[in-house]
């Protein structure tokens, strides 16, 4: 079953309370709903806020992020390890050094613009890996993006027939397609329920009912499969 993490902040508070029992995503960049989500949600995905920082031209304060996580990062919640959008593999390694939390409460980010070898290295070490759209694959659902995600799952399935949990960042719209994402997140409900005059819980319920397939059958390896 695919877990749908609904992004916050979601206002007014009464509308967030009506979402009780859902799974939530709370970003370090917008943490105001954290206490409420921890009290009413099934689980909370704690995002590092790197995407928000990147779009605003700011750097992520890793130390402050760790301090924010420390009192709340317990089962069943998990957190996204700091990453560098459009950075190199070495940039990602540098950000991951010093991560103080256990692997089963954590997920590194593989940026689609980086090598498949780096993805496989992450999947060998971590039970959950996030896919982040970057570079020529920034546009989720574009032809280039679809081919790259196919390539990634081919490589993962050849290495790990029982796939690690793959979380698609900003990827809720991809549910119901061919990729076996274990979880996805989106701020779709928080941003759009007022514009569509829709009850947020009903909107989330419809989204949650769309599932991803449970596995992946790799195509035959092709030349270039493990290229950057």
Find the structural class using helix and strand composition: alpha/beta
Q: Care to count the β-strands? A: 9
**Regions with little confidence, pLDDT below 50 for 5+ residues:** 222-228
CATH architectural category: Alpha-Beta Barrel
Helices, by number, come to 9
Total number of distinct structural domains: 1
Assign a percent range to the helix content.
25-40%
What's the N-to-C terminus distance? 31 Å
Gyration radius, to the nearest Å?
A: 17 Å
Top CATH class: Alpha Beta
Largest sheet: 9 strands, parallel
Mean pLDDT: 93
| Spatial order of the strands forming the largest sheet | 5-4-3-2-1-9-8-7-6
Strand residue percentage: 15-25%
Short description:
The chain contains 9 helices and 9 strands.
Explain this structure.
This protein has 9 helices and 9 strands. Helix 6 (116-125) links the parallel strand 6 (109-111) and strand 7 (128-132). The chain has one domain: TIM Barrel (Alpha-Beta Barrel). It has helices at 13-17, 34-40, 50-55, 62-69, 89-96, 116-125, 143-159, 188-192, 200-208; strands at 3-7, 23-27, 44-47, 78-80, 106-107, 109-111, 128-132, 165-168, 183-186. It has a 9-stranded parallel beta sheet with strand order 5-4-3-2-1-9-8-7-6. It is 33% helix and 15% strand. The model is unreliable at 222-228 (pLDDT under 50). It is an alpha/beta fold and 228 residues long. Helix 6 (116-125) packs across helix 7 (143-159).
